[in-house]
Structure formats: C-alpha cells, structure tokens
Amino acid sequence: MTVHIPNRSIPPRRHLLRAAFALAQGAANGSEPEKFLTGADPEVAQRIIQRAAVAPGTTTTSGWAAELARDAWRDFLTDLAPYSGAARLIAKALAASVNDVQEAFYPVRAAGATAPAWVGEGDAIPVRSATFSNITIGPAKKQASIVVWSRELGRRSDARNIFEVMMREDTIAGIDGAFFATTAGSAAAHAGLLNGVTAGLGYAGGDEFAIKKDLAGLSDAVATGGSGDVTFIVAPQRFARLKILAPDIFEKLDIAPSAAVPTDRIIAADAAALLVSVDDAPDLDVGDHATLHMSDTPLPISDSGVADPVRSAFQTDSMALRVSHFMAFAKRRSTAVAYLDSATW
C-alpha cells in the first residue's frame, strides 16, 4: 500500500491565496471551488474554504492541515513586509489574543525588568517588588474589502497572479492606513499609532548629515527604555531615494515602505513595544448576484438612488470577493512610536 505524505513545505499564506482564488473561480464557473485547487497539497486550502471545526493538531499528526490553516492569515500579513510597514511591525510585535466583543488587559512594569540576583547555596532568593499598570487592547474591530472582477478576467491564464496582486494591494492599503493614521479611535476603527504623538521637524540641509540627524533623533525617541530594535517606515519615494543618497545607511537599518505615509514623513517604531492581535483566518465570501456601490465611501443602496455608481455583478457578469478580518493593536508604552514631518532629503 502506498502512503501519501502531504507536502508541508508550502507556506500557509499560499494556501490562503489559493483558497480565495478557488472561491472566485468557482463562482465564475458555477462549480465547486475545490475543483480549482491546483498544485501540491490542496488540503489546507480546502480547510480554509470549508472553515470546518477540527480538533487541534500538529504538523506530525493527521490534524496538520488545520494547524496550517489557522496560521495562514498571520503568515499572509507578515509576508507583505517588503511592501508594507504595518506588516513589518506585525511580524515583530508581541502577539496578543483579543476577540471582537471584549477588550483585553496586558500588564506592563512601570520600572522595567529586574535583574536576577546571585544567590549562594542555601541562601534565600530575593523577591522583587514591582509596580504594574495595564495596557488596554481591543476589542478587535473589523476591516473589510471587496474585489470585483469580470468573468473574462477570471478565465485568463494569468488570472491567479492578477487576483493575488489585487488582494495583496488591498490588504496593504488597509493595514497600513490603520497603523499609521493620526486619527483618534471610533466605534468602527482603532486609533492610529501616531494619534497623540507630536510630530518633530526634519533637519535642514537635505544631505546625508540631515538623514543621519533625522534617523538618529527618531531612534533616540523610541529606543529609550525599549528594545533598541527600531523600524523606520517611509513613503515608497523616500524609500527608493534613501537607497541612492545613503546606501550604507539603508543597508544597516530596518526600513520599510508604506504608501500610507506622506512623502515628507518619517516614522520610527519599536515593534517589541507593540501589541497586535489578528484573526486566525479571514472570512472569504464570493457572490455573482451582488449589487454594489462602487465607491471608497459607500452608501446604503436604496430606492432613493443616492448611492452612485451602482453595479450589478449579475448584470455585468462579474464576481465580487469580500475579505473581512478582525484586528486590534496598541502601544505598550507611549514612546513606542515617533515621527517627523518636513524631511528635507
């Protein structure tokens, strides 16, 4: 008897994208989505599609697919790090567990860590006193997006690549916009990491010395009392410019681009001082009979005709994929993030 050993080398994020694409193709062709799972090891993608309740397992037991399915969304987000500053921070932040109903409290020591003492044989081990405060995170709030594509696009040979790019770009825009906002929290959204932080001003001159002064000043602001592992987030234009103006500096620092950051803004963050909670897996729904308000600021669709333009997926022979997930994030200390505006280089 031949025993099939599944291929576990495929990253969980690939299974997520395969599942989303298969759902879209299934809707486009009126078939079961599993029919469009190609390549090695479709079992994890099937788990994501079915979202079946399964007992916890490990990669060495029959439940291994369930384990990878639960890792797929976080792995997908962290895989966006080369193009997303928020994804870079998510990968390095302290993972938190928060649901969409209640807020959670994480203790933080006001005076920092206490070094263990040297203790002689038979001597009493000191018990250090410490003052703790609670950092509130959550409840998790929902981000959602809809990708619309025509049936003709779904039948192209490179449809999967096009679909994956669209899904990645929408996700990056969502998480980066949320993380690097200066706005306060609301019933629907979390406060941005820059909310309540006073912006500094860029150093004059526009040369390499100005680059060093800007980055060193921000680094000092967030590294004091922290891990010292500072991540800088800049606009894509400045990211590319830094490679040219100061390649040695660029190679030595952890710098990530984000289209959500204004061109003249430089952000620094100590990711170890952040708490981030993300879903195990997003909700993926596909429909070809939906009516949609095609707008970045959609309105309820009603007989009044206020929502315009409106598109019928059925009438235009299109599919709509809705991706929604819950997320929460918070700073473990107020100085975890700093930023400046008016950079001159």
Summarize the structure.
The protein is of the alpha+beta class and 345 residues long. It has helices spanning 12-29, 43-50, 64-78, 85-92, 151-154, 159-179, 208-223, 236-245, 247-252, and strands spanning 94-95, 104-109, 132-137, 141-150, 200-201, 230-234, 254-257, 266-270, 274-278, 283-287, 291-293, 310-312, 318-331, 337-341. It contains 9 helices and 14 strands.
Describe this protein's structure.
The protein has helices spanning 12-29, 43-50, 64-78, 85-92, 151-154, 159-179, 208-223, 236-245, 247-252, and strands at residues 94-95, 104-109, 132-137, 141-150, 200-201, 230-234, 254-257, 266-270, 274-278, 283-287, 291-293, 310-312, 318-331, 337-341. By secondary structure, it is an alpha+beta fold. Strands 1, 4, 9, 10 and 13 form a five-stranded mixed sheet that branches. A five-stranded mixed sheet has the order 5-14-8-6-7, sandwiched between helices. Strands 2-3 form a two-stranded antiparallel sheet. Helix 1 crosses helix 3 and helix 2 (43-50) crosses helix 3. The radius of gyration is 24 Å and the shape is globular.
The portion of residues forming beta strands comes to 15-25%
User: What string gives the helices and strands in order?
Assistant: HHHHEEEEHHEHEHHEEEEEEEE
* Mean pLDDT over the full residue set: 84
* H/I helix tally: 9
- Fraction of residues in H or I helices: 25-40%
Beta strand count: 14
The end-to-end span amounts to 67 Å
Computed structural class:
alpha+beta
Uncertain segments of ≥5 residues (pLDDT<50)? 1-7, 52-68
The largest β sheet comes out as:
5 strands, mixed
Cα-atom radius of gyration: 24 Å
Q: What gross morphology would you assign?
A: globular
